[in-house]
Amino acid sequence: MRTSLIRALRSDCAAAIEKYWRTTLRRGLSKKEAADVMATLTLPQTYSMLTTDMGWSPDRYQKWLANALPQLLLRPELLCD
Question: What is the rounded average pLDDT for all residues in the chain?
Answer without folding.
Answer: 93
